[in-house]
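Work Package 3 (structural annotation) set out to generate three-dimensional models for the target panel prioritized at the project kickoff. During this period the team completed the workflow that converts sequence records into discrete structure tokens, so that structures can be stored uniformly alongside our sequence database. As a representative example, we reproduce one entry of 382 residues exactly as it appears in the project archive.
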Amino acid sequence: MLRNAPPAAAGFDPERLQQAAALLEKAVAEGVTPGGVLLVARRGAIVLERAAGRLTWEDDAPAVTPSTIYDLASLTKVIATTTLMMRRVESGALDLDAIAAAYLPELKGRPVGNATLRDLLAHSSGLPCCSELFRELGEGLGRDEARRRYVEHIAATEMEVGARERAIYSDLGVLLLGEILERRAGRPLDDLVQEEILDPLGLRDTGYLPDPALRDRIAPTEPDDWRGRLPHGEVHDENTHALGGVAPHAGLFGTARDVAAFAQAMLNGGVYAGHRLASAETVALFTRRAELVAGSSRALGWDTPSDPSSAGRYFSARSYGHTGFTGTSLWIDPELELIVVLLTNRVHPTRDNIAIRRLRPAIHDAIVLAIDDAIVKPRDSA
């Protein structure tokens, strides 16, 4: 279990670590994000949990606290979908090298049908990034019908490039993985995630479709012209919203401490709080580079440091992590035994604010450079 400890107990220089934390407060002052939470853990100890700013830019908006809940966006891909995939592959229920059409018959003879599950996880299928499927469906369609129409649309989608020609980060491929998981289990995705991941790890502040009673703890995202309102406690991603708020690529809400506990399970080789998500061998398989596309940083579901990287220059080549469009990120370094969680709502009030691209690497660099019990040097370019 994660525990609280002073920075020095985990090999940090306390003053330099506080300087790293101050970067978040400076970012708020400079308009990068209304607020955020930064959590640093090393060797199983949380040594920094810093909240800064407010939930919105309004002067009277509630202050961010360590218990503030953020729309995790694409961290859903690794916490939920990739973890379920690890479990199914390890049990033999799914085969990474089977083609998607083997599990979704409507993909037979379609452009994406011959992509393997490994390709979909490593974003090497050739599918385009995304599609505004929500505009076809609108709001209020039953989730089962919405899922059926999404699969139909993806089945008819032309590939942007051939399989394994180029890595293209694709929500569409992850949507297919989620459909496979749901069909094989015969149960909704949110139930699978709750029962197999969130409940065993004790992640009580994380889940899909947060209770409206938690609204005061939730950071709103971006006013949405399509919905005609500000999503506050409902998912920012429009395609996920059209799916009823539950999707394999987005939809989870959570706190920094919960994300860190999940990360610790990964760092522990798949086990946390006496519960095993997967074997250490499976964790290693999914978190190292897939090597399906020359030069791609993609692992299976996860990403690894590229040049440049949101993880900065000093996270090791063995590191893995992911970012979320709303302003979230998680990076894990097995060599340094280090976890860094940064949760923000940088899309409030507009997604056009991309200054977080500078903040993320700066924070990660400062954190690693605050370590004083290990030799830290820039990562070799991959």
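The chain has a mean pLDDT of 97.
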